[in-house]
Amino acid sequence: MTRIGRWIGSHLVLAGGILVLLYMYIPNMIVAVMSFNDSSGARNLYAFQKFTWNNWLHPCAPEGMCSSLVTSIEIGLLATFFATLIGTFAAFGLVRHKFAGRSLMNLVLFLPMATPEIVMGSSLLALFVAAGLGGHLGFVTILIAHIMFCISFVVITVKSRLAGLDGTLEQAAMDLYATEWQTFWKVTFPLVFPGILSAALLAFSLSFDDFIITNLNSGQTVTFPMFVWGAAQRGVPMQVNVIGTVMFLVALAAVILGEVGARRRRKAIAAR
Amino acid sequence: MIATARKRTGYLLILPAAVWLAIFFVVPFYSLLATSLYDPEGSVLTGYDMTWHFANFWTALSEYGGVMLRSFWYGALATLFCLVLGYLLSYAIAFKAGRWKTVMLVLVVAPFFTSFLIRTLSWKLILADNGWVVNTLQAIHILGPEGRLLATPVAVIAGLTYNFLPFMILPLYTSLEKIDPKLNEAAADLYSNPFTRFWKVTWPLSLPGVVGGTLLTFIPATGDYINASLLGSPNERMVGNVIQSLFTTQGDYAVAGALSVSLMVIIITMVLVYVRRAGTEELL
Amino acid sequence: MSQVSSGTGRDLRLSGLQKTYPNGFTAVHDLDLVVPQGSFFALLGPSGCGKTTTLRMVAGLETPTAGSITIGDADITHAKPYKRPVNTVFQNYALFPHLSIAENVEFGLKRRKVADSRAQVKAILELTELAEQAAKLPTQLSGGQQQRVALARAIVNRPEVLLLDEPLGALDLKLRRAMQVELKRIQEEVGITFVHVTHDQEEAMSMADTVAVMNQGVIEQMGSPYDLYTNPHTTFVANFLGRSNLIKGTVVGREGAGDDAVVKVDMHGTIATIKASKVHTDSKDGWLGIRPEKVLIQPAGTAIDAPGSSISGGVVTDASYLGVSTDYTVRMPWGQEIICFEQNTGRRGGLIPVGTQVDVSWRPEFAFLLDASQDADAGIVEED
Question: Which of A161, A174, A176, A179 to mutate to test the interface with C (most CBs of C within 10 A)?
Answer without folding.
Answer: A176
